[in-house]
Specification:
heterodimer, A: 308 residues, alpha+beta, six-stranded antiparallel beta sheet, 18 strands, globular, B: 393 residues, five-stranded antiparallel beta sheet, 5 helices, 15% helix, 30% strand, elongated
Chain lengths: 308, 393
């Protein structure tokens, strides 16, 4: 069994709870095939992150499925079938979201499908046509949504990492017993501190761990917020500390594995190629392929970083 | 969770399962049994100790899970103490098993235990005594119809294109004929039964030796409805919100709404140098605002009309070598096209529409794409705007 079967199952069900998702991962016997370093939250080499968390990260980065926290509503919901056009690639779109065997067959009858097996993700389906307008019209007739220049469109609307208006104000846990770490932007690693040290400094990102609970708090200009860990890291880093890198010849954009971008920025980078980033064990960096220069420029501004 | 050797964290996996735990000295716990108690609720988890465990795969979980006994024709693993190994292997041979692999604590088995893998029983074995722990290794001559694999959507329903494999486990001497929907079924080399029409959409019944199993195959098409997974204020604009769902970027139709099911509409992306959108009907003008915090970001806007042109904000003050009038939509002739929002068109908006076209024309901005038909279309707009402007005065 594979992630393809899981995506077909998710597409047929439409939406469900987190426990249903985990049950499907178990029942469909999805094996651990993703890179163990592909671990934005745990950030431990050889992570013991459960396989269903790895699958979740892959599916949401590829824009197939959306996941959410909390008790309200669905824990996961499949994105409707969508053709996401990739910038600068002409009449060539990436098939995202819900899929079925019948839908893929109908799509294959009206356009050229380039289906490729890539490790750690469902099959990548690229749809090609004579022109963007023609391809979009055919896909729309089959019920697909169309998104022009998907990576740029996403990057043009997501808030930057220092957009305080979207941070959730919060208080750090006052009860004792938490293991607390502070993120060092200089060393790009977590260092253990005493719980009562939190909040003494002006700015900092703190990790609170108690058993399986893990929370991230950003102390910023005298206030405290609960933020996604990736947002917090970039918020506290200076303009060159993340060491973003771009090779215009290979069109590979890379970041240290410990500095993966926030979800929607990473999704935009992934949608440039439709392939999950590759982890390079030699450099401990994750590499995003086929990224155009203008996408890099937008991503870097949102991350408040310079690109080398 | 209190445990004799300290505490254990149980994390819910599913409604009736927890994630796997790896307590220290697992071998002793398996042998002597364990009682774990939730310190808060008093709930208890009991695993009685024993020297032999039978496990099998192909359940609702990855990996091996304990089962009551060996089943004929199904692959198992047997975990036993080293002291019981000789007796276990003797019973397995009686059950027709051969070629199993043995893993000890050097290979990851608990200390004092061995794991026998690839155990495939082929014949039933009479029980000797109801209390003999080795009876778990003696298969009964019963017949079991198994529906394995495929993509299961519910208790007995599978996706049509991914039906389950139909297998029959049990004593070959007692199995007899297998029928699917009343047709005699045939087994493939790997033991899966099929019959004419067995994988068609609808309900099916498998019968063998007075045992039946039913299943149905259903076809499900993905729902096309778009929804809002993330919601942000429209960058650069005073009001309005943007929704993201997968790769889709949409604008909320109602600026006050931001729920998951709220109605959304398509967006238009225009370069920051051309933030003014013009439709084909006079008065169709929409001014977008570049995002202030990201240089070079496209202006994202939801337009109530179908825009034809995008022009600079101040045509008379822009550099004509770098700025263009861009055709961004269907090449509707002036005065025609989709005029859905006639109610919003006012005299000031008509004047604004005319001024924008006349200013861009007076500046002599080039047209993109540089196609003669597009250039001619722009000339027609200029003439139309000029005549309309005279009429307004």
């Amino acid at each position: 069994m594979s992630l393809d079967h899981l995506l077909l199952w998710l597409s047929a069900r439409g939406a469900g709870s987190w426990s249903q998702f985990r049950a499907a991962v178990e029942e469909l016997h999805v094996q651990r095939q993703l890179n163990s370093e592909d671990d934005a939250e745990a950030e431990r080499p050889g992570s013991d992150l459960p396989v269903y968390h790895e699958v979740r990260f892959a599916l949401q980065r590829l824009a197939h499925v959306e996941f959410r926290h909390g008790n309200g509503g669905h824990a996961w919901r499949v994105v409707p079938p969508t053709l996401a056009f990739m910038r600068g690639r002409g009449a060539c779109g990436l098939f995202c979201g819900a899929r079925s065997v019948a839908l893929l067959e109908r799509l294959g009858e009206t356009a050229n499908l380039d289906v490729s097996d890539v490790e750690g993700m469902p099959q990548r389906v690229v749809v090609r046509g004579e022109s963007v307008a023609n391809l979009a019209a055919r896909a729309s007739a089959l019920g697909l949504h169309i998104q022009e220049s998907a990576p740029v469109a996403i990057l043009c609307v997501v808030p930057g990492v220092r957009e305080t208006a979207v941070w959730a104000p919060a208080e750090v846990p006052a009860t004792p017993g938490w293991t607390v770490h502070r993120f060092s932007p200089l060393e790009l690693r977590w260092t253990a501190i005493q719980q009562d040290e939190v909040g003494r400094g002006a700015t900092g990102l703190f990790r609170f761990v108690l058993k399986h609970q893990r929370f991230y708090y950003l102390c910023w200009r005298g206030r405290t917020y609960q933020v996604p860990v990736q947002v917090g890291k970039y918020a506290v880093m200076r303009r060159r500390q993340a060491a973003l890198s771009y090779d215009a010849n290979t069109r590979i954009f890379s970041v240290p594995a410990v500095c993966r971008p926030p979800l929607l920025i990473e999704r935009a980078l992934v949608l440039c190629s439709g392939i999950l980033p590759r982890f390079d064990p030699a450099s401990s960096r994750v590499e995003y392929s086929e990224v155009p220069r203008d996408v890099v420029r937008l991503a870097a501004q949102l991350l408040c970083q310079e690109v080398r | 969770m209190w445990a004799p050797a300290g505490t254990v964290d149980l994390i819910a996996l599913q409604e009736d399962w927890y994630q796997d735990v790896a307590p220290p000295d697992l071998g002793a716990l398996l042998l002597e049994g364990v009682l774990w108690r939730d310190e808060a609720t008093g709930q208890e988890w009991l695993r009685s100790g024993r020297e032999i465990f039978v496990l099998t795969s192909g359940t609702a979980h990855r990996g091996l899970v304990t089962c009551p006994r060996l089943v004929l024709g199904r692959e198992h693993a047997v975990l036993c103490t080293t002291t019981r190994l000789a007796a276990v292997e003797g019973v397995l041979r009686e059950a027709g098993c051969e070629g199993w692999r043995t893993l000890d604590d050097n290979d990851g088995a608990p200390r004092g235990w061995v794991l026998l893998c690839d155990v495939l029983p082929r014949r039933p074995v009479q029980w000797t005594d109801n209390s003999d722990i080795l009876n778990g290794l003696r298969p009964l001559p019963q017949v079991e119809i198994a529906l394995e694999g495929g993509i299961r959507l519910g208790y007995a329903s599978w996706l049509a294109e991914h039906p389950p494999s139909i297998r029959v486990y049990g004593d070959p001497d007692h199995t007899g004929a297998v029928q699917i929907d009343g047709h005699n079924a045939t087994a493939s080399a790997d033991g899966c039964y099929t019959a004419p029409g067995w994988d068609s959409v609808g309900p099916h019944q498998v019968w063998c030796n007075a045992t039946t199993r039913t299943f149905s195959l259903v076809r499900r098409e993905p729902l096309p409805q778009s929804w809002a997974a993330f919601s942000f204020p429209t960058p650069g604009a005073r009001d309005g919100r943007i929704a993201i769902c997968g790769p889709l970027v949409r604008a909320f139709t109602d600026p006050q709404a931001d729920g998951e099911e709220a109605a959304t509409s398509e967006i238009i992306q225009v370069g920051p140098a051309n933030p003014v959108l013009l439709g084909s009907v006079p008065g169709q003008v929409l001014v977008t605002h570049p995002r202030p915090d990201v240089r070079g970001a496209q202006c994202i806007v939801s337009s109530p009309f179908a825009p034809v042109w995008a022009i600079p904000a101040q045509p008379l003050r822009c550099d004509k070598r770098e700025n263009r009038v861009r055709l961004i939509g269907e090449p509707w002739p002036p005065g025609e096209g989709s005029g859905e929002v006639t109610a919003r068109i006012t005299r000031p908006s008509i004047e604004q529409w005319c001024s924008a076209i006349r200013d861009a024309g007076r500046k002599g901005l080039a047209v993109e794409p540089a196609d003669p038909a597009v250039t001619e279309l722009w000339r027609r707009y200029r003439r139309y705007a000029r005549e309309l402007w005279r009429g307004l005065r």
